[in-house]
Amino acid sequence: MIRIIRRPAYPGELRHEVVWPAVLTVGAACAFLWFRTGWRLPDCIFMKWTGLPCLGCGGTRSARCLVALDPGQAFLFHPAFVLTVIGLVLWTAYSAYVWLARDPMRIRLSADDAGRRLLRRALFLALALHWAWQAYYLRGA
Q1: What pairs with residue 107 in β-bridges?
Q2: Terminal CA-to-CA distance of the chain, rounded, Å?
Q3: Structural domain range at position 118
Q4: What's 112's DSSP letter?
Q5: Which of 40, 46, 58, 94 could form a disulfide with 77 if both were Cys (CB 3.0 to 4.6 A apart)?
Q6: How much is the pTM?
Q7: Looking at the 3D structure of the chain, how many domains does it have?
Q8: Where are the alpha helices (DSSP H) in 38-78?
Q9: Tens-level pLDDT at each residue, the chain (141 residues)
Q10: Considering the domain boundaries, does residue 76 fall inside one?
């Protein structure tokens, strides 16, 4: 069983409400500055060797589209990247609420063994579907 629970933060626990918003902020600032310079990233070695895109292919194009405020094209280039950014933005909003309200309770995901197996299978299926999409949409790119 997989549940979302609210519980107090444990002493010494990683403060996800601080870490992930910082990752989003620093990542967005670095991407913005990188794209403003016009620099390119090196070509994908996996695609060069196999002719197939890797799981990260299209991520830079997706980020460029997000910076240019074109989320539809960004999603087509790399759906997982866009969904990750949306998740990080939602987590940042939740983190701001926790910080401003000084709420001692934290939202966490809880799963038993069957739930963990289900999550692993769902992740594997999502990665396989994502890669199939990348291979279809980015062919010849």
Answers
A1: 6
A2: 41
A3: 14-137
A4: -
A5: 58
A6: 0.80
A7: 1
A8: 45-50, 59-67, 71-77
A9: 999 999 998 888 888 888 889 998 998 898 888 888 888 878 889 888 988 888 888 888 898 898 889 999 999 999 999 999 999 899 999 988 888 888 888 888 899 999 999 999 999 999 999 999 998 988 766
A10: yes
